[in-house]
Amino acid sequence: MKHLLSMADLGAADVEAILALSEQPAPRVLQDKGVALYFEKPSARTRNSMELATAQLGGHPVYLQPAELGIGSRESVEDVTRTLACYHSIIAARVFDHGLLQEMAAVNAAPVLNMLSGTDHPLQALADLLTMKQLTGRLEGARVAFIGEGNNVSRSLAQACALVGAEFVIASPAGYGFEGSTNDPAEAVKGADVVYTDVWVSMGGEESAERRAAFEPFQVDEALMALAPDAWFMHCLPARRGEEVTAPVIDGPRSAVWRQAENRMHTARGAMLWMMGVTPQSGSGNEQEEAEGSTRLFGRAGHVDHPQMAADRI
Could you report the per-residue pLDDT of 136-148, keeping only the tens digit for each? Predict the structure, then answer.
């Protein structure tokens, strides 16, 4: 049984398979089956992407909230997990405590998928990899500069980059980064293929004047992007324009945030297919068709990233 709780659960071959499955036609392996979507923390992108990905695989998503399950209070984690496994082929959860996911996976009653926890966000990292691959044409050797906090998003992205041979560098205020982080955003973005940021205060986090003052020098603005003239801008969203990023950057022609957001759906589908034991299809032999695959995939939503990208879509 395959669980996906963090990028550390995957090897390089697993990531390659998930990304390939994300760009291939969706087999209806969940036809007439359920997928439990347990949300302790609400989310627009996660709920929509997971519900649509489940539907594309033929399944029925069931949205669940803490009051409905009483997990750990009205019923034990093991009993809730076994109950959900009676109805669902996959149990997906978006939680505060990563330990809850580990307890659910330990029951081994159904595959468990992390939709976000306090320490990890593998679905976001997979969507980021797919976006980078589509935009730059490669993952190995790509340079990703993350400007902001060492949090669940940046941790999973760092692990993902290590798996695919990409270079990851993070610039954070003192006390907010990882071991080895730089405190110089300008140094981090030099030579970057992607400049990435996240909100200064995550959902449920504590906002303070001290924290804001620490992060203000780490805003991604036009001047910082000018130091990486060939880089795309990425953000996991939601964004606060005027704080971690300026409007001209996130709304400009080098912003890939809407492609990135849509890819949450495609990689959620790829991740669930991998968990169900599906392997990627072999190459079609049609190089032109393969080269245009990501374009046609993104085009299904009927929109583009930015008006200036329409004429030059990857």
Answer: 999 999 999 999 9
Distance between CA 236 and CA 233 in Å, rounded? 11
Residue 232, classified by CB atoms within 10 Å of its CB into exposed (0-12), middle (13-18) or buried (19+), is: buried
Distance from C-alpha of 52 to C-alpha of 124, rounded to nearest angstrom:
16
**pLDDT tens for each residue of 202-233:** 755 667 899 999 999 999 999 999 999 999 99
Q: Is the peptide bond before 248 cis (omega within 30 degrees of 0)?
A: no
Q: How far apart are CA 138 and CA 117, in angstroms?
A: 28
Asked if pLDDT for residue 11 goes beyond 50, the answer is yes
Q: Which CATH architecture has domain 7-116?
A: 3-Layer(aba) Sandwich (3.40)
> What CATH number does domain 122-259 carry, 3.40.50.10260, 3.30.530.20, 3.40.50.1370, 3.30.1490.20?
3.40.50.1370
